[in-house]
Amino acid sequence: MKIIPVILGIAGVIGGGSFYLMNNPETFKGFFSRKTIKEEESYSRAKKNGKVIAQFIYKDDYFGSSSEVTGTLKAKCEYWTELNKESRKVMSESECQELIEELPEIKNGNKPIRFLKFDERGNFAIPKEYFYFLREDEDYLLSMLRGEQISEGPWTCSSKQKIDSKELIIKCEKNQN
């Protein structure tokens, strides 16, 4: 008999809590959200604050064309603010287009490319995330970083280091058959 009030009390707490959460969906979303309290930054804000350590652009017909009339290839852009994979973020289409316009290496091209620009903080970890053949053989990466051209599948890749900074660029172009 003494257990019945305990059960009714627990049921009341659960029922009341459920009623509250159902009537306040913002609380419910926040409770189960995987996001950290740290506010997500946009690419432009991260760049302005000097937090961007890598930028990646992938432009290929794999994504389809953004315009059937012009045949312009769609691009996917990502940026990193830290070395862990969780810091990799996808840019909005407008931010991606702005980045492409800023880069003379790819600005005027409509060819399929894979382009990675990273600073020394990106060491070898970031290139291996985008160029899978670099995961297998450390010599490939070292050869590429010395400026040698490497062909892998339909892609021909080369690199260069900007003289005025500590940025490295790896650019791969798809061989057109």
Automatic annotation (TrEMBL):
It comes from the Bacteria. The chain crosses the membrane at residues 6-23. The keyword Membrane applies. Keywords: Membrane, Transmembrane, Transmembrane helix. This is Uncharacterized protein.
